[in-house]
Amino acid sequence: MLIKGIHIDRFGKLRDKRLTFGEDLNIIYGLNEAGKSTIQNFMLSSFYGARTTKKNGMENVRKKYIPFNKDYTFGTMEIEQDGEVIIIERKIARTKKDDLFRAYEKET
């Protein structure tokens, strides 16, 4: 599986952020508080959903990353698996019942 890119509509302090990844090693770097860990948590949340309890030092995604004046986070991830490009959409709302997960082939 290859992660081709992400688009963060809103997640924590990041707004309308697009990153494109190459086929080889990709390194995300920047100053402190630049959003590196926020990007990492967005990608984890895109695959696995929101963690709502604090275990093993992991943070509550709903409490930390839903913007102050908004009701949800949202973003997409584009991955390639066996030659097919798949789009993953993830919305994390204040409650689990309002969350959204959708995965579909880009060409359909």
Gist of the model:
This protein has 108 residues and is of the alpha+beta class. The protein is built from two helices and five strands, in the order E-E-H-H-E-E-E. The longest helix is centred in the middle third of the chain and has 13 residues.
Distance between the termini: 19 Å
Work out the helix count.
2
Q: What order do the helices and strands follow?
A: EEHHEEE
Number of strands: 5
Uncertain segments of ≥5 residues (pLDDT<50)? Answer: none
**Average pLDDT metric:** 91
Main sheet characteristics: 5 strands, antiparallel
Radius of gyration: 14 Å
Read across the widest sheet, the strand sequence of neighbours is 2-1-3-4-5
Structural class: alpha+beta
Helical proportion, percent range: 10-25%
Task: Give the amount of beta strand, in percent.
Answer: 35-45%
Approximate shape:
globular
Describe this structure in words.
With 108 residues, the protein is of the alpha+beta class. The protein has two helices and five strands, in the order ββααβββ. The protein has helices at 36-48, 61-65; strands spanning 2-11, 14-20, 72-81, 84-93, 100-105. A five-stranded antiparallel beta sheet has the order 2-1-3-4-5. Strand 1 and strand 2 form a beta hairpin. It is globular. The mean pLDDT is 91.
